[in-house]
Design brief:
- The protein is 25% helix and 31% strand.
- With 253 residues, it is an alpha+beta fold.
- It has two domains: 79 residues, Arc Repressor Mutant, subunit A; 159 residues, 3-Layer(aba) Sandwich (Chorismate lyase), CATH 3.40.1410.
- A six-stranded antiparallel beta sheet has the order 4-5-6-9-8-7. Strands 1-2 form a two-stranded antiparallel sheet. Strands 3-10 form a two-stranded parallel sheet.
- Helix 1 packs across helix 3.
Length: 253
């Protein structure tokens, strides 16, 4: 019987004096090995006993770490093979206010946008109230297809008050970051946002535009973005492919 290869895990150092529990340190250490490519997709992790001996921990502690990685979609157990590294998915990092392009580039991908429509409209009551608009004041309404490495990833419907960015249509929004345009050309300093995330069944139109496999759900992110002076700047509904995008939130007590 061959000896399990635990060499890739030797770089993980555990600090028993740290306020972070050991299982969390292990999960973070293995997570870094996955994200850096040291442990590629399809890699089969060593057996529990070998990893417990490597880290000097109990099986219960190891299973806590593995459970965390599994819930984050980084690994999965497969009958007859063991615990396997899953293909990389784009994971949404909470507490970061970033544009789609910034988020994709940060993860080593190539962002791309295709503008489907851009028009000035008189919004409905809920949108008008959110932006504190008068009755006939208009908003820009943009629908964009967002791609990662040439593959459809999301459909994004954005609403922005015309009064904040008059003449927005003169910019090439398909090739330039909307956040960069708002900040550099209109002096809008974006500071924070509130996001509501839900899973939904896609419409037939969205299924076609996103090239969704059959029976694949979508992840919908509704974002309200505010400037540093408190003004409401953006109202966005992003519909992501559920098989390529996930949202991860870590809570600490």
């Amino acid at each position: 019987m061959s000896t399990p290869n635990v060499a890739p895990f030797s770089s993980i150092r555990l600090d028993k004096s740290s306020p972070n529990p050991i299982y969390l340190q292990i999960a973070e250490g293995i997570g870094e090995l996955l994200k850096s490519g040291v442990l590629p997709a399809g890699y089969v992790l060593p057996p529990e006993r070998a990893l417990c001996e490597q880290f000097g921990i109990s099986r219960m502690t190891l299973r806590q770490a593995m459970g965390l990685l599994d819930r984050e979609g980084l690994i999965e157990s497969r009958r007859g093979r063991g615990t396997v590294v899953t293909p990389a998915r784009l994971r949404k990092q909470e507490q970061e206010l970033k544009s789609f392009s910034e988020e994709i580039r940060d993860r080593g991908g190539r962002p791309e946008s295709r503008l489907i429509s851009l028009e000035l409209t008189v919004p409905g009551e809920s949108v008008r109230d959110f932006f504190e608009l008068r009755d006939q004041q208009k908003v820009y309404e943009l629908l964009r297809l967002r791609l990662k490495d040439g593959e459809p990833l999301a459909l994004e419907l954005v609403r922005i008050p015309e009064r904040l960015c008059p003449g927005l249509e003169r910019f090439d929004i398909a090739k330039n970051s909307l956040y960069q345009i708002l900040e550099e050309s209109y002096g809008l300093r974006l500071e924070n946002c509130i996001e509501e995330i839900s899973a939904e069944a896609p419409t037939s139109k969205f299924r076609k535009l996103l090239a969704l496999p059959k029976n694949t759900a979508v992840l919908v992110v509704n974002r309200k973005t505010f400037a540093e002076d408190g003004r409401a700047v953006e109202l966005t509904r992003s519909t992501y492919r559920g098989d390529q995008y996930s949202a991860v939130v870590r809570s600490v007590r």
